[in-house]
Each structure stands twice: as structure tokens, then as C-alpha cells.
Design brief:
One of its GO terms (cellular component) is P-body. This is RNB domain-containing ribonuclease. InterPro entries: NA-bd_OB-fold, RNase_II/R, RNase_II_C_S1, RNR_Ribonuclease. GO terms for molecular function: 3'-5'-RNA exonuclease activity; RNA binding. The chain has 468 residues and is of the alpha+beta class. The chain folds into two domains: 339 residues, no CATH class; 57 residues, OB fold (Dihydrolipoamide Acetyltransferase, E2P) (Beta Barrel), CATH 2.40.50.140. The protein has 14 helices and 19 strands. The protein is globular, with a radius of gyration of 23 Å. The two termini are 29 Å apart.
């Protein structure tokens, strides 16, 4: 599950050293070599701007507090039959030269890697947090998607153009939610569109896991992990991104060129296993119910809700990337959790594949030749993204394990309440109630069973629990 990147206080340098060691072991570098940095400075000195001017549109960005790598900006207005949505995406090809040092390094990294102390960016910060970022009150080059929606939120027309844009404000999620709750016009329109798109997702049989965000917080000389449920505005905002990814997929499918994000439908045995798990947790999932609908109606305040969401991870496996050949079958191109074909296209500052998708979509939408660098760059791109995702997952797991050990170290000998969320042979995966961390232990019981565990010791391999 995602967690925020925060700066460590000086008194927590030991933990910071552990994070640095984890990055070193995974060959993750925060910095860039001098050649890459020099190219970034040169590229950002006078970035080219498109002739098409859309700086009159009052775009805003909505991101976590303090974010500087701003990939997307949006504006929504009423239209005769429903809504018009403008969605601007950072223009990386304007500042990243194909075949150059930055491009080569980005293909080595694949994506931005996040740890609790700081991130290891995909691109030099002069690009990702400045020259290409859609920061407020500066003119930037962007790919601007324009969507015409009817009154139920269905897309009826789409255009895509590179244009000059100027964001007006950088809103945090909390600020955006506050405005939505206080009759702000733009956030009110985002609510309307977002809710309509969520309803359409339900009709498609799509599903959102919506795992809570984990925040590793320093509290004096100690640490804790806090979990934060997503705000409604985050879910509405995510629907605009999903809508854009679906449009990108359709453009590429129509041309038989490009790369999609895919995920197979959950196998029947995984679905049956999930049904048994959640039934044991007291939150049954009916035989005739879509798993997306079940997750949408799940009471996030129920004590077992986090355990259900963790168990649902088994339904969201097998995600990958598929380079199009023009001969695909429906099963080969589906993103089952979305319920439609889909492409990653809205986070090019942080994810390599999006730059290639945007270049393909721009050419296809405007009837021009796909840039040779974009077409050739699909070779090996699926493997790059798969390897970087594995590395990002390992970084997250290892960092959370390090923080968990620090949190629990002063509590050796204490008894903890826990809930079994999954099991593998004789070992169970459990969720501690307080602090809210995931552990493994040798314990009997089916998922949903409440148990009490004693923290026996902290070793290099992690926390050792026994049944109390």
C-alpha cells in the first residue's frame, strides 16, 4: 500500500541510514551522474513551447501536500449536454532528448522510487520538480486532453493537442476536499463528474482496491505508522486519470500501435478463496455479486475492513504491459480491475511508460507519424516496467519492515491484539490492531480469526511473535 515520503528529523539518522542501506542493496540512486545533470540544465534553459495556446484555461493541480512533481492539471466546465473536462499532462518529450543521457538513465530506472525519507526520482529534479512540472503561475508545454461528457459521464468526444498551459493553483488533497465541502464551483464539478464516472465503473464491473495510505511519522524520539483513508476528492480525481487512460487505450487500439496496461480477470480459485476469507471475517461476499461492487460497499470503518482489503490483493494480481501488434484478442488487452482496456498515460514525470504512450496518442489523434524514438522505444519497455515495479515493491516492503522493527523494539514482551488476514501453510499473515502493521507468525486459525500475540524479540530477520 502507498506511503508518503517525508523528511527525517536529525535525531532519526539511524533509521535514515537503514533506508540508505536498503536503497544501496537494491541499486536505487537518489542522485544522478554529472553528465545527466548537465544535460538536464541544458534542456531546461529554454524549453520549447507549442504554438497552440491554452493559457486562458484556469487549470489547477491536486496532489499530496508539498508535492513538486506535478504531472496533471485539470479544469472542468458545464457543457450543453453535460461536461467538458480539460486534462493537461506534463510534456516530457519537450525536455528529454531521445537517446540522450537523461533518456538512457530513465530507461534504467523505470519509475520514481519512494522511501519514507525521500524519493529517488525518475528524472533529475531540475526537470521533474521544475521545468516540466505543472507548477502554478508558469507557462509550460503540456499534452491537453479535452473530453466531452454527457450528463451521465459517458465520453462522447475526445481531442488531444500539445499546448501552452498555465496552472493557477497547486491544491493539496485536504484543500481540494475543503473546497468541495464548501461549494467551490470547480471542485463541485469534479464531484459530479467523479461520482458519475464511479457509477459507470460499477456498470462495467470495474473495481478499485483503494488501500489506505500509510504515513510513517516521527513522534518525538519514537515512530509510528498511521493509516489514512482516501478522501472522496482523491477518488474523484483518480477517475479523471482513469478516463484518460481508457481514452489512450482506445486510440492505440484503433491504430494497433502502442502499449497497454493489462490485468487478467481473477481466476475462479482466487475468487473462491477470497469468498471464504471474508466470510470468516464476518463480511460475506455473495456468489452473484461483482467483486468491484463488494469492495465499493465495504464499510471502511469496520474493524475487519483493512483485513478484507489485504485479502482482496489476490484478485488484483497479474498486472503487466502489452505492446500492441494489431492482432490482439479482448482477453489480451483487458484491465480487469477497470473493466476496460487501459494505458498508463497521466504520470510521465514519475513513470517511464507514460512518455511513450503520450507520444503515440498525440500522433494517432492528430494523424501524424509516430515519432521513431517512441515506436522503437517500446522494445523492452514491458520488461523495464516490470523490473522497476518489483524493485519499488521491495523498497516499500523493506522500509516498512525497518520502521516496524523500530516501532516495536521498545515493546518486547508486550501482548498485542491481531487479526489473521491470510495464511501460507503453517505461517499466517496478521494485522496488528495497534500499531497498524502487518506481521507473520506461526499461529493456527483461518483468516478473520482474532488472536493475541506476545512480542518475543526483535532480530535481524524482523519481529518474532508467539501466541500469548
Amino acid at each position: 500500500m502507498p506511503f508518503r515520503t517525508t523528511r527525517l528529523a536529525a535525531e532519526h539518522t539511524d533509521l535514515a541510514a537503514q533506508f540508505a542501506q536498503i536503497r544501496d542493496q537494491l541499486n536505487i540512486s537518489i542522485s544522478f551522474d554529472a553528465r545527466v545533470e548537465r544535460e538536464a540544465v541544458d534542456a531546461t534553459a529554454h524549453p520549447p513551447l507549442p504554438e497552440h495556446d491554452q493559457t486562458d484555461i484556469a487549470f489547477v493541480t491536486i496532489d499530496p501536500e508539498g508535492s513538486k512533481d506535478l504531472d496533471q492539471a485539470l479544469f472542468i466546465e458545464p457543457a450543453a449536454d453535460g461536461y467538458r473536462v480539460y486534462y493537461a499532462i506534463a510534456d516530457l518529450p519537450a525536455v528529454v532528448t531521445a537517446g540522450g543521457a537523461i533518456d538512457h538513465e530513465a530507461r534504467r530506472r523505470g519509475q520514481t522510487m519512494y522511501a519514507p525519507d525521500e524519493s529517488a526520482p525518475l528524472h533529475p529534479r531540475a526537470i521533474s520538480e521544475d521545468a516540466a512540472s505543472l507548477l502554478p503561475d508558469v507557462v509550460r508545454s503540456a499534452y491537453v486532453w479535452t473530453f466531452e461528457l454527457d450528463d451521465v459521464g459517458t465520453v462522447t468526444a475526445t481531442t488531444l493537442k500539445r499546448a501552452r498551459v498555465r496552472s493557477r493553483e497547486r491544491l493539496s488533497y485536504d484543500e481540494a476536499q475543503h473546497r468541495a465541502d464548501n461549494d467551490d464551483l470547480l471542485m463541485g464539478l469534479l464531484r459530479q463528474v467523479g461520482e458519475r464516472r464511479i457509477a459507470l465503473e460499477a456498470q462495467r464491473g470495474g473495481a478499485s482496491l483503494d488501500m489506505p495510505e500509510e504515513e510513517i511519522v516521527a513522534d518525538g524520539d519514537s515512530w509510528t505508522i498511521k493509516r489514512r483513508q482516501l478522501l472522496p476528492v482523491e477518488q474523484w480525481n483518480a477517475q479523471i486519470s482513469l478516463m484518460t487512460g481508457m481514452a489512450a487505450a482506445q486510440l492505440q487500439l484503433g491504430a494497433g500501435r502502442g502499449i497497454l496496461r493489462t490485468m487478467p480477470k481473477p481466476p475462479q480459485d482466487a475468487m473462491e478463496h477470497f469468498r471464504r476469507e471474508v466470510a470468516a471475517m464476518g463480511l460475506p461476499f455473495a456468489e452473484d455479486e461483482e467483486y468491484g461492487g463488494y469492495l465499493r460497499r465495504l464499510d471502511r470503518d469496520h474493524p475487519a475492513a483493512i483485513a478484507v482489503l489485504m485479502a482482496a490483493r489476490s484478485l488484483f494480481r497479474g498486472a503487466g504491459y502489452h505492446v500492441l501488434t494489431g492482432t490482439e484478442t479482448p482477453d489480451e488487452v483487458i484491465q480487469a480491475a477497470i473493466g476496460a482496456p487501459y494505458a498508463h498515460t497521466t504520470a510521465p514525470l514519475r513513470r517511464l511508460v507514460d512518455r511513450y504512450v503520450l507520444a503515440h496518442c498525440d500522433a494517432i489523434a492528430n494523424g501524424t507519424q509516430i515519432a521513431p524514438w517512441a515506436a522503437a522505444g517500446l522494445d523492452g519497455l514491458s520488461e523495464i516496467m516490470a523490473a522497476s515495479s518489483q524493485k519499488a515493491g521491495a523498497l516499500e516492503r523493506e522500509c516498512i519492515a525497518a520502521v516496524t522493527a523500530v516501532i516495536l523494539a521498545p515493546r518486547v514482551g508486550e501482548v498485542f491484539d491481531a487479526l489473521i488476514v491470510d495464511r501460507r501453510e503453517n505461517r499466517a499473515e496478521l494485522e496488528l490492531i495497534d500499531p497498524p502493521v502487518t506481521i507473520t507468525a506461526v499461529v493456527e486459525g483461518e483468516p478473520g480469526t482474532a488472536v493475541r500475540l506476545r512480542l518475543q524479540s526483535i532480530t535481524d530477520a524482523g519481529a518474532v511473535f508467539v501466541v500469548a
